[in-house]
């Protein structure tokens, strides 16, 4: 045994607490009706690879994300597992595949139910946003680590927005009711980041149609905060979005030299 004395403890030193572990849930079970006929949207090709593979890599690129839960089209779970085996993720990232539901909310809930213990931060990220940069993902995680219970990436709007009385039948003129102050409006993206317990409570408590997870946390009366979004985190919804996504990817590949 060494006779060397143990080093004196640093005054007031506190052992560093490990960072809370982060999992990403990727709802990918939608049909993609607005994109037009074809395979489920998440499995459509972008730059020669299924859109879902890009979305999974976008999450796994963050060193903070150690588990990705993919919520697959109900009849496509086996195909998605095969895809993930074929397109290796970084070794530090585990993945699970579960079947999705009828709505985005149901699909996210299925992903949350499959989450093992030990992940205190959860990202929810649309498979339909395949090109979100890793800096945006990390900014969301950082804001949750800093204490926010719910975080959304957000961008200012380019268009003026009108509130209307929706037409009784498609194509009829719609009376404008109001013009909200654009400087107070934001378009929000994913990944949205959450304290896990808060997101689970929101999904257990809030009923009715919602279009994102953060609005469920708002309905609990809790504060949701924004971080800067990114224009390349746009959602592939209509055919023109796919053209833009191909162009963004081609530019990235050119810049990366392959
Ligand atoms: N039952 C559903 C519906 C949607 N989503 C997912 O939620 C994300 C955002 O939905 P959206 O872009 O609206 O996709 P779709 O529902 O596929 O599109 P559409 O409304 O045009 O059919 C997508 O990654 C989609 O796969 C899901 O997991 N389960
Ligand atoms: C969650 C979302 O991407 C935030 O902008 C969006 O609300 C999803 O909407 P969709 O109609 O299900 O595509």
TrEMBL record:
User: Which transformation does this protein catalyse, written as a reaction?
Assistant: 2-C-methyl-D-erythritol 4-phosphate + CTP + H(+) = 4-CDP-2-C-methyl-D-erythritol + diphosphate
Task: Report the EC number(s), separated by commas if there are several.
Answer: 2.7.7.60
Would the keyword Zinc turn up in this protein's UniProt record?
no
Write down the position(s) of the site called Positions MEP for the nucleophilic attack.
182, 235
Gene3D superfamilies associated with the record: Spore Coat Polysaccharide Biosynthesis Protein SpsA, Chain A
Q: Where is this site: Transition state stabilizer?
A: 34, 41
PROSITE patterns recorded = ISPD
One of the entry's Gene Ontology molecular-function terms is: nucleotidyltransferase activity
Q: Which UniProt keywords apply?
A: Isoprene biosynthesis, Nucleotidyltransferase, Transferase
Q: Which pathway does this polypeptide act in?
A: Isoprenoid biosynthesis; isopentenyl diphosphate biosynthesis via DXP pathway; isopentenyl diphosphate from 1-deoxy-D-xylulose 5-phosphate: step 2/6
Family membership noted in the UniProt record: Belongs to the IspD/TarI cytidylyltransferase family. IspD subfamily.
Function, as annotated: Catalyzes the formation of 4-diphosphocytidyl-2-C-methyl-D-erythritol from CTP and 2-C-methyl-D-erythritol 4-phosphate (MEP).
Which PANTHER family does the record cross-reference, listed alphabetically? 2-C-METHYL-D-ERYTHRITOL 4-PHOSPHATE CYTIDYLYLTRANSFERASE, CHLOROPLASTIC
Q: Which HAMAP family match?
A: IspD
The entry's protein name is 2-C-methyl-D-erythritol 4-phosphate cytidylyltransferase
Q: What is the lineage of its organism?
A: Bacteria, Bacillati, Actinomycetota, Actinomycetes, Kitasatosporales
Question: What is the primary gene name for this protein?
Answer: ispD
């Amino acid at each position: 045994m060494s006779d060397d004395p143990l080093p004196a403890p640093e005054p007031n030193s506190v052992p560093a607490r490990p960072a809370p572990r982060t999992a990403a849930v990727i709802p990918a079970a939608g049909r993609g009706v607005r994109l037009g006929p074809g395979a489920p949207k998440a499995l459509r090709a972008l730059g020669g690879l299924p859109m879902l593979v890009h979305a999974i890599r976008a999450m796994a690129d963050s060193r903070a994300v150690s588990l990705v839960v993919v919520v697959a089209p109900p009849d496509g779970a086996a195909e998605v597992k095969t895809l993930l085996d074929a397109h290796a993720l970084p070794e530090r990232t585990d993945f699970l595949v579960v079947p999705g539901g009828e709505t985005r909310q149901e699909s996210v809930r299925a992903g949350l139910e499959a989450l093992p213990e030990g992940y205190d931060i959860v990202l929810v990220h649309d498979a339909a946003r395949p090109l979100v940069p890793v800096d945006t993902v990390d900014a969301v995680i950082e804001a949750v680590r800093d204490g926010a219970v719910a975080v959304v990436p957000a961008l200012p709007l380019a268009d003026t927005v009108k509130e209307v009385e929706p037409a009784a039948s498609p194509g009829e003129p719609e009376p404008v009711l109001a013009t909200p102050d654009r400087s107070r409006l934001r378009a929000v993206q994913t990944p949205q980041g959450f304290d896990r317990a808060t997101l689970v409570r929101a999904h257990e408590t809030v009923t009715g149609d919602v279009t994102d997870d953060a609005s469920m946390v708002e309905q609990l009366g809790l504060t949701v905060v924004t971080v800067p979004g990114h224009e390349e985190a746009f959602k592939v919804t209509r055919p023109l979005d796919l053209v833009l996504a191909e162009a963004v990817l081609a530019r990235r590949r050119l810049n990366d030299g392959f």
